[in-house]
Amino acid sequence: MKRIILIVLCLIFNLSLAQKGDWTTKYSQRWENYDGGTKLYVSNDNLLPITYKIGYNPVNLKASKPNGTFIVIPAQSKDVLILDFVKIEATKGWKFEKGNTSIYLGDVTDTDYDEDYVYDLPFEKGTSFKVGQGYNGDISHQDKYAIDFDMPIGTKVYACREGLVIEVVKLNSKNCDKPSCADFNNYVKILHSDGTIMQYLHFKKNGVRVKVGQKVKKGQHIGFSGNVGWSTGPHLHIDLYLTDKNNNYQTLPTKFKTEDNTVTDELKQDAVYLKDY
């Protein structure tokens, strides 16, 4: 009977998984009924937190938290109590009508990050590369803090900051200069200690050298650049971002260490930068 109730609840709640790209989200929810109502527990098997946005429509039940509340569930946690629904009138039955609850990858409530962190350039010591497109570029960076380095296919790519690899796509080979080809990007996403994520795009097919769940060091080799996905020519795209409460990527300005230990607030389009460290 409990299994039947759970299936029905999942159907009428219209629980939606809000996600971007090829995220594989692993989570489960468990309902525990008792004489005075029911409780909801959620387990998160992901390598990063998930955020649960409440949107239930109960009948003859009072929820412990109001709709619209965001609840952060830590990475790899089990049976976190999300909600307790208590019967309002003890002698009457209760049910749920259609609601709209969503789950987002990451902690969308955390907008603080280390704005002063200085990132390494993502290429090998002793080499230099031109910025083909900078912040707010007119090709694909409109309203984005993103950087494209013009880079021959097969160039070694290095991590700009230490962190945890949370997503890898490496098997694509298709390329075109249309936004539709963004679905064919090869990329690596690395989660940092302050909750930000840096993504590295356009690796050549099978050119990624790290795997999901791996901890990487700053300056570690993570793959080889390419010309895969939405691309007008061989290059490496990088950007730093947080996910907001509307499940949108908010890219962030990033400081880089450049030649002679100079800290550069913004890498300029058409400028060439040398990595001498």
Automatic annotation (TrEMBL):
Gene3D superfamilies: Glucose Permease (Domain IIA)
Claim: DNA-binding is one of the keywords in the record: no
Alphabetical keyword list: Signal
InterPro entries, alphabetized: Cell_wall_metabolism_enzyme (IPR050570), Dup_hybrid_motif (IPR011055), M23ase_b-sheet_dom (IPR016047)
GO molecular function annotations of the record: metalloendopeptidase activity
Domain M23ase beta-sheet core residue range list: 144-245
Signal peptide annotation: 1-20
Protein name listed in UniProt: Putative peptidase
